[in-house]
Amino acid sequence: MENLKKKINVSNINKKFNGQIVLEDISFDVFEGEFVSMLGSSGCGKTTLLRILIGIEKPDTGEVFKDGVDITNNPPSKRGMGLVFQNYALFPNMSVWNNVAYALKCQKLPKDEIKQRVDDVLAIVGLTNFANKRPSKMSGGQQQRVAIARTLALNPDIILFDEPMAALDADIRMSLRKEIKELQKKLNKTMIYVTHDQEEAFSMSDRIIVMNDSHIVQFDTPNNIYKHPANDFVKKFVVHHLDEKAQAILDSTK
């Protein structure tokens, strides 16, 4: 990957809450157009790391660089990143169209530009025919696509996902997983995706950050993690969990 442009560089991040170490000496690079998952069990630090990337949390020490510029102290609105939440965070009293348009209206963009952007992203996520519906009349998978459209409308060059499928059933997760990956390839967006689901990470990612107990224990391609786990934790948490499904997942991503 030496010829690829670094989109994100995280350097020596440390974070404590109430004296407890949450992140310790975290460093990694993400390249432009790459899909990277942060995989780990609850409490390993992955969501805190995501919140530091977007600017909701500040590290105690360390830096975050985007396109070579130090953004460690920049507010979320000045980072050119978008965040898709687990719980959709849609306005129930607004139509799909107005949910997607809301942040653009707050930015006081011209009406014709707002209309163009909203119509374009609804077409991208396949929701043009749902523009006038309320979120409460839609399935969980459809609501999550509205949330993705809302983020896309802001035209971020990096999109972060915080366990976006945790509340969805297995069939919807499977189809939405494919849609997000196809969307990433189509738009060539850099995406960083937090999950505790091994199959999800393996089926979607170019590379996976495996986290345990506040540390990165391996950062590699799905194939290398499966064939060459860095330690016993990775072997147990990833390889043993996937078992016979792993090769089929790896084959399907080729």
Question: Structural class of the secondary elements?
Answer: alpha/beta
* Secondary-structure element string: EEEHEEEHHHEHEHEEHHH
Major sheet: order of its strands?
6-7-8-3-9-10
Binned strand content: 25-35%
**Low-confidence spans: pLDDT under 50, at least 5 residues?**
none
- What is the 3D form? globular
Helix count from the secondary structure assignment:
9
Mean pLDDT: 92
Radius of gyration, CA atoms, in whole angstroms: 18 Å
The count of β-strands is 10
Helix content: 25-40%
* Intertermini distance: 18 Å
Verbal overview:
The structure is a single chain. The chain contains nine helices and ten strands. With 254 residues, it is of the alpha/beta class. The strands form two sheets. A six-stranded mixed beta sheet has the order 6-7-8-3-9-10, with helices on both faces. A hairpin with a 2-residue loop joins β4 and β5. The two termini are 18 Å apart. The model has no long low-confidence stretch (mean pLDDT 92).
